[in-house]
Amino acid sequence: MASEIGALLARIHLEHAEGYGDLTDPSHLSGDPRIPFTMKFEEGLEECKDHLSESLLETCKRHFNKDLNLLLSVDGPCVIHRDFRPGNIIASDGKVRGIIDWSSGRGGFAEDDFCPLEFGEWPTSYKSSFLEGYASIRKVPDYKSMMPLLRLSRAVAAVGFTVKRGTWESRNSKLYQFNLGHLESLWKN
After folding, report:
1. Can you tell me the distance from the alpha carbon of 116 to that of 86, in angstroms, rounded to the nearest whole number?
2. Which of 17, 32, 47, 68 is the most exposed place for a label (fewest CB within 10 A)?
């Protein structure tokens, strides 16, 4: 099934987008992936502003700015899911029946959808078959070099999400702690 799921992600990425950003608002799509990516990152920082220390926020900005130009060579614009993980795959009788929760979907770059695969949201045993399935439809993008930037962006967004909703100490405390730990590891380096 991992191979089938990888092939489905590749089919999603075959869908060309007119630009980067929110596909429901074509007038604001950008030809530069850095623009909407930076806007989302800054949105997350704003949500974290009164919760995280200024020095930690500055560390996040510094790491972000250091790697931002990696986005000049991304695989896109194409349709991306942005939350392509097991919880959003409906399967029955050993077959994929659907992909749900498109609320984060957008015009983006294929590399972004590989974050859940790299950051432990998929069983490790899936990775090889997943990538083989993907490669059977289209070339796997060279995503490894930009994983630190993508991981940082996702960590800031996750912390911001839990703080904004007031769930960082309750329902989403594990998500919060996991991502805060990543941000704090950057601060220490």
Report:
1. 9
2. 32
Look at residue 78 and give its three-state secondary structure. Answer: strand
Beta strands 89-92; 78-80: pairing state: unpaired
Q: Give how far Cα 169 sits from Cα of 48, 153, 159, 176, Å.
A: 14, 21, 11, 8
User: Per-residue pLDDT tens for 86-132?
Assistant: 999 999 998 999 999 999 999 999 999 999 999 888 999 999 999 99
Phi, psi of 97 (to 5 degrees): -105, -20
Residues 89/96, Cβ–Cβ less than 8 Å: yes
Averaged confidence pLDDT in the chain: 96
Q: Give the integer Cα–Cα distance in Å for 68 and 64.
A: 6
Residue with tokens 């949201």: 121
Give the pair of three-digit tokens for residue 17.
């987008």
Angle at 75 between CA 128 and CA 96, to 5 degrees: 45
Q: Each residue of 24-53: pLDDT tens digit?
A: 999 999 999 999 999 999 999 999 999 999
